[in-house]
Amino acid sequence: MPRPRSFDDAQAMEAAMNCFWHRGYRAASVRELGNCMGLTGPSLYNAFGDKQQLYQRALNHYLDTGVRRRMAQWEAQLAPQAAMVAFIEDLVRRANHDPEGRGCMLVNTALELSAHDDAMRQLLQAEFASIEGFFERSAGAAQRNGTLATTLPAPDLARLLLAGVLGLRVLARSRAEPGQLEATARPLLALLCPPTTPVRRTRRPAQPHRKPT
Description:
By secondary structure, the protein is mostly helical. The protein has 2 domains: 9-61, Homeodomain-like (Arc Repressor Mutant, subunit A); 66-191, Tetracycline Repressor, domain 2. It contains 10 helices and no strands. The longest helix has 27 residues, at 118-144. The chain starts with 8 loop residues before the first helix and ends in a 22-residue tail after the last helix. Residues 197-205 have low confidence and may be disordered.
């Protein structure tokens, strides 16, 4: 009969996530991870598998408690156009309140591991597709209800917004100057503006023709 675990899985995963997020995959040693999680090496391997498996679980935990949950909330609670704006504004706000400069764990993973790890690359591609899908659904709905001015097809706009979001995350990771993220996000937000109401021009009433005296 297996012995009951003497640690809390959720707390251990939160600790692993924070260690990887701060240090990166390669720089975080198994010893360091064990210290953060309160586990010895053998206990860590028995509970979570090898370092790669632990990292994948930590990244999924990061996504489940972060962007996946927020996207679901925005899509359920906000109008489609407002949901897209909320995504970008939330990204900028979080990046500006990141004193340790950890950036986005998803983008950090793409920069560090996507060229060398097939399993991780598949996870990243699936997550990027999920974010793109959020934008495409929201853009399509906003165009149908008349709250989005751009005439770009929803799939094209979604790909453009995904690229912009990833670029903002990389810029944030490089410790952007104050105001730089807002300035970079401004053109993306401009794409999401609702249509402006055209100003009606009224003609002046015709002046009665006066006969010369």
